[in-house]
Amino acid sequence: MFTRKKQLTLERWFFLIVAAVVVYLFWKIIEPFALVVVTAGITAIVLSPLDIKLRHLLKSRKLSAAFLSLGTFLLIVIPLFFILILIGTQASELIQVSLAQGGWLRSFQMDHLALFQSLPAFAQERLMSINLETVGSGVAAWALENVGELFSSTTQLLLNTFLFFIALYYLLVDREKLYQELLTLSPFRNSVDEKILARITSTIRHVVFGALLLAIVQGVFATIGMSLFGVPGAMIWGGLTIISALVPLVGTALVLVPAIIYLFMIGQVEASVGLAVWAAIVVGASDNLLAPYFIKGTTHMHMFLVLLSVLGGFAVFGSIGFIIGPTILAAFLAVLELYKSGILHERTGLKF
């Protein structure tokens, strides 16, 4: 016969095993859509201030959530659909241009450049062994191959899009209930949980509306400039400009300067000068004028960390990592900041 104590111990272990199995099976069920739900949650956090205002205006949380979900669809999904079509078209054109204009790559005399002549002999030999025409064609082919992946699994993409907006709607409607559930399930005191959640949500909003939004704006202006002055595949290079805008020190110049040089090399001097002026005035002004507004409140986040989080997010989570990566960074920095400030000291008894 089991004693009462042993019986309770056995029941606890049995419950833990059953709970672990159920949680594992539940995770396997939702795993294919986990990133969709997480992305919807991030979007709901970003939209929550607007949701609060709309609720007061419309006197209905469901109607407010419906308006925001529909607005998100109209402002993001539909333009993104046409952008992807343009990128696919321009990727094909980029390969054709690369093959058609291979002559300027073949005739390009690298050894006549003063910078090249100043390099050590072994570096000159290595650079001379590079076939620029092959590299140019390879880059264009890589772009087309990877853009093609965006159009694969159409059914899955449509399903994920549908689930995203359903999840966004219910996350907005039941935002307060979910918040209270998190407070209930957390082992920490409510005051500690509230500080952690407030810091995380605030940081997420600052990241999305800060560094990333500024990078997107610069990428859009760069795309417009490259389109106006005849750079092939402007949409593709504009997308890369968004990433390069997060790189400290060099920023958008990482893409725009090679584009300017390219136009000069193929004899389009006026277009090259025009793009240089556009980059300096329009793209540069967008950085100087909008950065103080977009990145306010993000001074504690180093741009290099934001860049790493975006690239790492792409590598781990795919295209959706553009948002997931910075969100994880935001959560990490929020927890780290709370750890440093000693908020958890009273609860854990640990010394910081």
Automatic annotation (TrEMBL):
<feature type="transmembrane region" description="Helical">
    <location>
        <begin position="64"/>
        <end position="87"/>
    </location>
</feature>
<keyword id="KW-1133">Transmembrane helix</keyword>
<feature type="transmembrane region" description="Helical">
    <location>
        <begin position="275"/>
        <end position="295"/>
    </location>
</feature>
<feature type="transmembrane region" description="Helical">
    <location>
        <begin position="207"/>
        <end position="229"/>
    </location>
</feature>
<dbReference type="GO" id="GO:0016020">
    <property type="term" value="C:membrane"/>
</dbReference>
<protein>
    <recommendedName>
        <fullName>AI-2E family transporter</fullName>
    </recommendedName>
</protein>
<keyword id="KW-0472">Membrane</keyword>
<feature type="transmembrane region" description="Helical">
    <location>
        <begin position="301"/>
        <end position="334"/>
    </location>
</feature>
<feature type="transmembrane region" description="Helical">
    <location>
        <begin position="157"/>
        <end position="173"/>
    </location>
</feature>
<dbReference type="Pfam" id="PF01594">
    <property type="entry name" value="AI-2E_transport"/>
</dbReference>
<keyword id="KW-0812">Transmembrane</keyword>
<comment type="similarity">
    <text>Belongs to the autoinducer-2 exporter (AI-2E) (TC 2.A.86) family.</text>
</comment>
<feature type="transmembrane region" description="Helical">
    <location>
        <begin position="12"/>
        <end position="27"/>
    </location>
</feature>
<feature type="transmembrane region" description="Helical">
    <location>
        <begin position="235"/>
        <end position="263"/>
    </location>
</feature>
<feature type="transmembrane region" description="Helical">
    <location>
        <begin position="33"/>
        <end position="52"/>
    </location>
</feature>
<dbReference type="InterPro" id="IPR002549">
    <property type="entry name" value="AI-2E-like"/>
</dbReference>
